[in-house]
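Blackboard transcription, Thursday session:
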Amino acid sequence: MTDCDDLDMLAAEYVLGTLDAEERTRVAQRRQADATLNDLIQAWEARLAPLADEIKDVAPGPHLLERIEQRIEELEAQHDTRDNASQQADSDRATADTGNVVQLQRRLRFWQWGTGLATAAALVLAVLLLAPLPTQQEHEPFVAVFQQNDQQPAFMVSVELPSRELHVQAVSAEPLPDKSYQMWIKEDSLGPKPRSVGVLNDNLSLAANALSEYSPELLKRATFGISVEPPGGSPTGQPTGPAIHGYLYPATRRL
Amino acid sequence: MHHASDPASDPAAGTSTGPDAMPGAITREQLEALLQGVADQDRQAFARLYEATAAKLYGAVLRILKHEQRTDDVVQEVYVTIWQKAEQFDALKASPITWMVTIARNRAIDELRRRPTARHEPADILDQTASDTPSARERLEGEEDAQRLYTCLEELEGRRQDMVRLAYLEGWSRADLAEHFEQPVNTVKTWLHRALKQLKGCLAS
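(Written on the board underneath:)
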């Protein structure tokens, strides 16, 4: 069997649907950068498409369209908010979903909201990573590291207090196919549930003013989370996907 | 839980593709025009596209997930994706309904692999599959393409035909097929590859 055959069979089985989760993820990832594989997949989609004629129509419940439209409204509203905050967001959005996306979800640590404890390792990483930063007393940055595994942080978040300017930076995290990352804040005075800070844009970043409504004191006490959500963010207003957590930690403090 | 669409909730009611329009009643060209409208952020076009295609996509996802709430969630994601990606639809590469069904099947299978449901009795499914073919089929695709695929499928050995259908329509993995056909997974993989190559050869001839 030639490599060419192998690739064609991989495409065929991807379209047929017989691959396991890991293989599907790999193919979905690879086709973004591999035009040959992508073409083979599309050819198989066309070949097998008539099989879909066998599917019986089932009318959805009467409110699904409404739900979908609401969801789109929410996404557009977030989009507009981000536009106002940053024109960059608009151009990001325009090129959204065009690919180059990599499935990361299953590599993330699956921490639930409420367990609440960032690992000591995350804090150590935060300090190690930010130790070289210049330190200015009045702009003391606070950082949180969102850890993906024991070696690498997925995201690094820093907040300049008291301006509350937020910087989210993907370290090893990469965009996910058909998923969005959403950042959350949780603090006792905000109630028991996390609140959305915003959906990360395609640069895996957020508007610098996304935390401006919260006081510096609250931010110091808060837990932050980044969860994997359907495209455009959680449909429920609460984290629905796997989340990784971190606390803000003064970057200038030594262990 | 499933009802016919409520005309009162349909902003596009009264247009040529009313809320009760089934996919079979809308042409490929009309769907292409609606998708173009969606790409231009036309909400009315989106509502009409939904009305024309939701039952097909919902049916495809429900058949794989066998669970209404999960199907609702996946179909919602699918239409949000359609709204966001309509501009990427390429009429030269795929028919509109194939493009949309592909998005729906991929999403449903990804969801099924993430959280597998108990498999239904294979016998029931095969019966259902058999009873649906081919006379009860709706002709979404070009008549000729469909005819050729079915002719080629008929040429496959019986179990391999079943494998292709169970995988495509029900979302069965190699492991599911291996269990049902009481064969090692590698044997199933070999059978699948033979079946797919035979299909490809037959379709190309």
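Lecturer's comment: Confidence is low (pLDDT under 50) at residues 1-24, 129-141 of chain B.
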